[in-house]
Amino acid sequence: MFKFQILYQSRKNQARIGAIITHRGVIETPVFMPVGTQGTIKTMPPEIVSSLGYNIILSNTYHLYLRPGPDIIQELGGIHKFMNWKKLILTDSGGFQVYSLSQFRKITEEGILFKSHINGTEHFFSPIMVLEIQKKLGSDILMVLDTCIPYPLSYEETKNLTELTHKWAVESFEYWQRHKNEKQAVFGIIQGGMYEDLRRYSAKFITSLEFDGYAIGGLSVGEPLETRNQMIETSLEYMPYHKPRYVMGIGTPLDIIDAVIRGIDMFDCVLPTRNARRGTVFTSKGFLSIKNASFKSDSLPLDPECECYTCRNFSRGYLRHLFHAKELLVYFLLTLHNLFYYAKLMKHIKNAIKTETLENLREEVAQYYLKNFNDSK
Amino acid sequence: MFKFQILYQSRKNQARIGAIITHRGVIETPVFMPVGTQGTIKTMPPEIVSSLGYNIILSNTYHLYLRPGPDIIQELGGIHKFMNWKKLILTDSGGFQVYSLSQFRKITEEGILFKSHINGTEHFFSPIMVLEIQKKLGSDILMVLDTCIPYPLSYEETKNLTELTHKWAVESFEYWQRHKNEKQAVFGIIQGGMYEDLRRYSAKFITSLEFDGYAIGGLSVGEPLETRNQMIETSLEYMPYHKPRYVMGIGTPLDIIDAVIRGIDMFDCVLPTRNARRGTVFTSKGFLSIKNASFKSDSLPLDPECECYTCRNFSRGYLRHLFHAKELLVYFLLTLHNLFYYAKLMKHIKNAIKTETLENLREEVAQYYLKNFNDSK
């Protein structure tokens, strides 16, 4: 059981409010999925993530496959019970992590040979294997194996990797036809690098296979914001209206609004959690680095307009002290704040869709978040 | 306003139930104070520490003096507001940390010259200065500066350091007579090393000064359990019945029961929090190291008899995974469990005093915790 319903379609742009209906409950879109790489949203007890309003999180197949391994998670009752998260979980296919974390990898027609970033042991991922791993994990939404395409890359090489992604998508689809179950949905992934015609080609091809939803992959790999938006637009032209549309690994508040306006429903990104651990928080006035000496005896909260637990209870001066003293509590407090910010952003976005004021919200956010994430580091 | 009342005196031993009454509220003794070295109980949001039943914590003058500094804490409204802890705070004098953390120190008649363990800068602590720092911090119970006496140490050297502690106690006492305030109480510290007659000498001397309470210092520095208990007994002979008695830096569950039986009211120790971060937890059946391979796919909680948040929600298999993956959440979950264990232990102790069954509780705990802490590492 996996359904997607569109509850409201903006009259001014492509943005829409939707509902993903599963046996585990209903989630409203546009939705942001915090990243729980190793079976935990870093520093956060799951109840708190849930209390912030999150109904779906992402976890990484690559990491969980290597440690503790899918068999152990299966023995312990599946990923939900394992990490005590009662709502939805989407797992990626590992394609991106093999690309970004493994010291060594070799792509063949059959799959990807790679070495563990933990202990150097050799492993192989085929399209069917990554679905089997995700079946064992027991996630609610599974992603098919794709090839991650670096940026920049030649047209020829991009085309080859895109076609390999298509071949694997077909293998994944056929496998799933034979082995599907009622509780898990599978999404296809569009590649095509930063070439418009390859994106178009890939979007057409992938959406010709009847997956439960479709993702745009291979973005946020260093390309300019305009290119990113162009690739999203091109892919979207061919993505079916009545299925969930997910853009992977994105993004900043502005990235998210830009994609929602173009018709995207689902997002995941490490930004709120990773930034927090590096001392950078999202505020209603843009990024703030808690490390700054100017906050030494500042009694204000991170964001005077924020009502999160951290802002209601702790001063910048205290948080700066904790950060410099490397006190573990600070990573929790800043992560909580950033996840609260993203949850609120998604609420504002949904509200703005309904009231047809998304362009205004974009302007408001662009004032403070026009810069690329890289500028904030 | 600082009062101590004895609510119940055991008929079978020296244990007693008491109440420390301050402007910030009442705390019942025997009491265990979790250690919040740098203005935070490591990993723990203060509300959770409070919800576990703790009404008083300890923080370290040495650390807060070096970072962020007493002036900043004062500017930010004092230590309670700084760390958002609304209940009692006891601060030590820094004497022990100067001894254990500073790469360099020189003890003179006037105080201790030392180098910061953070950046090597030189600092000086005099008895009056450490009281002034603690005044700025705004803690509820202040400790006087003492000399930490290593174990083993010759009689002659122990005697000299003990006498210097006495000289500083007099200076502290006289300073406090002139500068005391209604909101802060000051405790004296008995030294004397591991020599019974020096302990007696120190206990007599320190308790001749009218402090609000008295502590036994210089224990848990490597001495055998029997020596420790002997030093506590000897010191206690001279400690006034109607004032709180605090044994510093102790201890294991068994240490605490042994000291309570002899008439001690207050405890602090890093064991529950530090052990947690190292993967060792306290259970009703003794220590458990979550690192063990045998827990790989163990679906039981840390302690099946425990009702803490961690034990109600997470398996050993999951916690082991988090620990090996160095996921920050695990330090929180294990710390919470250990603090829950200590809170419950203190409840059991109070109950056992009232029902005159403390010796039975001791036997029960000794079954599993007879070993020294060092064996558990």
From TrEMBL, chains A, B:
<feature type="region of interest" description="RNA binding">
    <location>
        <begin position="249"/>
        <end position="255"/>
    </location>
</feature>
<comment type="pathway">
    <text>tRNA modification; tRNA-queuosine biosynthesis.</text>
</comment>
<feature type="region of interest" description="RNA binding; important for wobble base 34 recognition">
    <location>
        <begin position="273"/>
        <end position="277"/>
    </location>
</feature>
<feature type="binding site">
    <location>
        <position position="311"/>
    </location>
    <ligand>
        <name>Zn(2+)</name>
    </ligand>
</feature>
<feature type="binding site">
    <location>
        <position position="337"/>
    </location>
    <ligand>
        <name>Zn(2+)</name>
    </ligand>
</feature>
<keyword id="KW-0671">Queuosine biosynthesis</keyword>
<comment type="subunit">
    <text>Homodimer. Within each dimer, one monomer is responsible for RNA recognition and catalysis, while the other monomer binds to the replacement base PreQ1.</text>
</comment>
<feature type="binding site">
    <location>
        <position position="306"/>
    </location>
    <ligand>
        <name>Zn(2+)</name>
    </ligand>
</feature>
<keyword id="KW-0808">Transferase</keyword>
<dbReference type="InterPro" id="IPR004803">
    <property type="entry name" value="TGT"/>
</dbReference>
<keyword id="KW-0819">tRNA processing</keyword>
<dbReference type="GO" id="GO:0008479">
    <property type="term" value="F:tRNA-guanosine(34) queuine transglycosylase activity"/>
</dbReference>
<feature type="binding site">
    <location>
        <position position="146"/>
    </location>
    <ligand>
        <name>substrate</name>
    </ligand>
</feature>
<keyword id="KW-0862">Zinc</keyword>
<dbReference type="GO" id="GO:0046872">
    <property type="term" value="F:metal ion binding"/>
</dbReference>
<feature type="active site" description="Nucleophile">
    <location>
        <position position="268"/>
    </location>
</feature>
<feature type="binding site">
    <location>
        <position position="191"/>
    </location>
    <ligand>
        <name>substrate</name>
    </ligand>
</feature>
<keyword id="KW-0328">Glycosyltransferase</keyword>
<feature type="domain" description="tRNA-guanine(15) transglycosylase-like">
    <location>
        <begin position="14"/>
        <end position="369"/>
    </location>
</feature>
<feature type="binding site">
    <location>
        <position position="308"/>
    </location>
    <ligand>
        <name>Zn(2+)</name>
    </ligand>
</feature>
<dbReference type="GO" id="GO:0008616">
    <property type="term" value="P:tRNA queuosine(34) biosynthetic process"/>
</dbReference>
<feature type="active site" description="Proton acceptor">
    <location>
        <position position="92"/>
    </location>
</feature>
<keyword id="KW-0479">Metal-binding</keyword>
<comment type="similarity">
    <text>Belongs to the queuine tRNA-ribosyltransferase family.</text>
</comment>
<protein>
    <recommendedName>
        <fullName>Queuine tRNA-ribosyltransferase</fullName>
        <ecNumber>2.4.2.29</ecNumber>
    </recommendedName>
</protein>
<dbReference type="InterPro" id="IPR050076">
    <property type="entry name" value="ArchSynthase1/Queuine_TRR"/>
</dbReference>
<dbReference type="InterPro" id="IPR002616">
    <property type="entry name" value="tRNA_ribo_trans-like"/>
</dbReference>
<feature type="binding site">
    <location>
        <begin position="92"/>
        <end position="96"/>
    </location>
    <ligand>
        <name>substrate</name>
    </ligand>
</feature>
<dbReference type="InterPro" id="IPR036511">
    <property type="entry name" value="TGT-like_sf"/>
</dbReference>
<dbReference type="GO" id="GO:0005829">
    <property type="term" value="C:cytosol"/>
</dbReference>
<feature type="binding site">
    <location>
        <position position="218"/>
    </location>
    <ligand>
        <name>substrate</name>
    </ligand>
</feature>
<comment type="function">
    <text>Catalyzes the base-exchange of a guanine (G) residue with the queuine precursor 7-aminomethyl-7-deazaguanine (PreQ1) at position 34 (anticodon wobble position) in tRNAs with GU(N) anticodons (tRNA-Asp, -Asn, -His and -Tyr). Catalysis occurs through a double-displacement mechanism. The nucleophile active site attacks the C1' of nucleotide 34 to detach the guanine base from the RNA, forming a covalent enzyme-RNA intermediate. The proton acceptor active site deprotonates the incoming PreQ1, allowing a nucleophilic attack on the C1' of the ribose to form the product.</text>
</comment>
<dbReference type="Pfam" id="PF01702">
    <property type="entry name" value="TGT"/>
</dbReference>
